[in-house]
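can u pls check wat happens w/ flavin-adenine dinucleotide
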Amino acid sequence: MIALDDIRRSFKGRIALAEPLARYTTFRIGGPADIYLEPLDRDDALSLIRYLRRESIPFFPMGNGSNLLISDEGVRGAVVNLEVGFNYLDMTTEGVITAGAGVKLAKFVDFCITRGRQGVEMLAGIPGTLGGAVIMNAGAYGGEISDYMLSVELIRGDRLLRISRDQGGFAYRTSGLQGDLILEASFVFPEGRTDSMKTFRRETMLKRNSSQPVQWPNAGSIFKNPPGHYAAKLIQECGLKGRRIGNAEISELHANFIINRGGASANDVLMLAEIARGTVKKKFGIDLELEIKLVGFEEDVASRLRDEVEGRKSTVSDRDD
Ligand SMILES: Cc1cc2nc3c(=O)[nH]c(=O)nc-3n(C[C@H](O)[C@H](O)[C@H](O)COP(=O)(O)OP(=O)(O)OC[C@H]3O[C@@H](n4cnc5c(N)ncnc54)[C@H](O)[C@@H]3O)c2cc1C
C-alpha cells in the first residue's frame, strides 16, 4: 500500500497516480503505473528510494522508454524518472564531462562534439537518456557509452555510491548495474575535430533514417545480435519481414525492429517476437536473446507465449494434414 502523504512529506518533485505509460515509451505501448515520480535532486531521489525500499514497494527506473515493452496492464508499484531533476551537463577545466542521468543522448553527444571531445558521436540517433544508456551500455558502429567512462554515481540499496568504470561490469548491451538507480556519469574523452565529428554525426543519422523504420513507433532492436550473426539477417532469412499480429508488424525495412502500426498491444508485440525467436531457433539452431526489457509482465510470460505459439503451429499443421 502506497501512503501518498508519507511521500509528499519530503518529496519535492512531481507525483502522478495511475499514470498511463504509453505516452512515455517510443513504442507508444504500456498501461498505467500505480505511481509515477520525478525526483528533483539527489536528496529527493535518495529519500524516495529509501522510503520505497523500507515499505517494500517495487520501483522501476524509466528513462526515455526507448528500450522497453511495458505490459498493457502497466506497472505495479512506482516508476521513477530523472529527466526533470537530472538534466545537467558540465565540463571541468581538466576536461571531465559529467552528465545527469536524465539528459537525452542527443544533447550529450552535441555537448561533447561542440567542445571538441571525441568518442560518443556514433551514439547520435539513439533516442535514450544517459541513465538508460549506461545501464544498457548502449552502443553503435563499434562504440559504446562505457568506452571513455570514468565513474558512475548511483543509488544501490539505500546508499549513494560513486563507482569506477571497472566496477560497472560493462558488456555487450548490458552492465552489472541492473537494479541500481543511475544518477550521473563522468567521462574523459580524447580531443577531436568538431567539424569532422559533425559530418560523421550527420552521416550516421542519415544511415539510421534510411535503414530503420523511424516513422513508426518502435523500441529499436528487439533482439541482441548473437555472436557472429546479425539478428535482423536471421529473421529476414526466415521470411518474416512484414509478418503481423494485430497492429504489430516485423518491419519490412529492418527485420530486427517491430513497429506499432497504431494501437498494437504489448501481447501482439511479444507474440511476434516469440514467433521470430522460435522460427530462427528452428531454422538455424540459434537462440535469440531479447534486447528490449519487458516490464510489468508475469515472469513466465515468454514460456507461456512459446507454448501458445507452438500450440498455434500444431493446430495449423493438424489442419494441413
Ligand atoms: C529507433 C531506435 C534506435 C535505437 N538504436 C540503438 C542503438 O543503435 N544502440 C543501442 O544500444 N540502443 C539503441 N536503441 C535502444 C535504446 O534507445 C537504448 O537502449 C537506450 O540507451 C535506452 O535508454 P532509455 O533512457 O530510453 O531507457 P529506457 O528504455 O527507459 O530503459 C531501459 C532500461 O534502462 C533502465 N534505466 C533507465 N534509466 C535508468 C536510470 N537512471 N537508472 C537505472 N536504470 C535506468 C530501465 O529500468 C530499463 O531497464 C534504439 C531505440 C530506438 C527506439
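The chain has three domains: 4-81, 89-197, 231-320.
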